[in-house]
Amino acid sequence: MEKAPGTQPCLRTLQGISSLSLHSILSRLAVERIEEKAARIEETFTLSKGRWDDTLFRTLIRSAGFGIQSSIFQEWAGILNMQALEKHRDSSLQIEAVMFGQAGLLNEESIPHYYRAGALASSYYKELLREYKFLKNKFSLSELPYTAWGTASPHLRIARLAALFFSRKLSISSISECGTITALRRLFDAPLSAYWSNHLCFGGTETAGNGSMKSSQTDVLIINTVVPFLYLYGKHRKDEQLCSRAEDLLYGLASEENGIIRRWRERGINADCAAHSQAIIQLDKQYCRQHRCAECLLGRYIIIE
After folding, report:
1. Radius of gyration of the chain from Cα atoms?
2. Per-residue exposure over 248-267, b if at least 16 CB sit within 10 Å of its own CB, e if not
3. Nearest-10 crossing angle of helices 227-237, 19-47
């Protein structure tokens, strides 16, 4: 049974730890978390047959699950036919057809009954369905069962991924050459196609303001996609500067805000930046919850002191 952070015995002595020692421990945990993510991306690199840009996009797809739906987004990324996408990269409609089709979301049963008539009658949905039937036959495409997505609606996130792919802005060269976080954020700013600029799902009520991604969401994608991807790329190229740049990015981004970070803040461990929030998540998930006190950097420091 997992213990909540508040039940960890070491927390009673945290008040006495020096700021310098704490920052040193958090820095090492942050690198450990990057390496853990990079190892997962290495598996995606193998799946993508050594193609870096395909690996980058599949990694981005997993990150677009924002934790809660990471597993299903990763499963979708695994079957997504990158050859079909690349062959039709000049057509946003065909990119969307492949993505929504392989996600199983062009199955009319996936559309809530109260939106279904409107969706089936729309020219956009009809065009997507026609294109997907053609491309499915051409590339022997497979799709997820629509039920795999549960009750959450991934449509807008998929539309944003399609817009990013169509924009050609995100690539191994573009993220390697970006000198600032501001420049990196711009890479994720791609205009949605007309339908998705005012819809949240097929046939849904039109809404305004679905265009740009929130800056906090963009930063999460940088943390979970760009940072470990650059780190792994640097390792493959034996380029220590790229690895260091990946680490430095975390120190330039604000701390994430979630239940884990809040619980540790209440007990005296503050995350001043994304490097520290990533370190705290690593500490919580990989040590505290696993009862690995003897292997924990913080635990060992307290025992020695």
Report:
1. 21
2. ebbeebebbeeebbebbeee
3. 70
AA identity, residue 169: K
Q: DSSP of 175-208, one letter per residue?
A: HHH--SHHHHHHHT--PPPGGGGS-SSTTPPP-S
How many Cβ atoms from other residues are within 10 Å of residue 57's Cβ?
22
> Whole-angstrom Cα distance, residue 118 to residue 253?
42
Exposure string for 120-143, b = 16+ CB within 10 A, e = fewer = eeeebbeebbebbeebbeebebeb
CB of 99 closer than 8 Å to CB of 80: yes
In total, how many domains does the chain have?
Answer: 1
221-260 pLDDT, tens digit per residue, is: 999 999 999 999 999 999 999 999 999 999 999 999 999 9
Q: 25-79, pLDDT tens digit by residue? A: 999 999 999 999 999 999 999 999 999 999 999 999 999 998 788 899 999 999 9
Q: Which domain holds residue 37?
A: 5-304
Distance CA 96, CA 234 (A): 32
Residue 213: both structure tokens together: 């991604």
pTM: 0.90
Read off the pLDDT of residues 187-199 as tens digits, 9 standing for 90 and up.
999 999 999 988 9
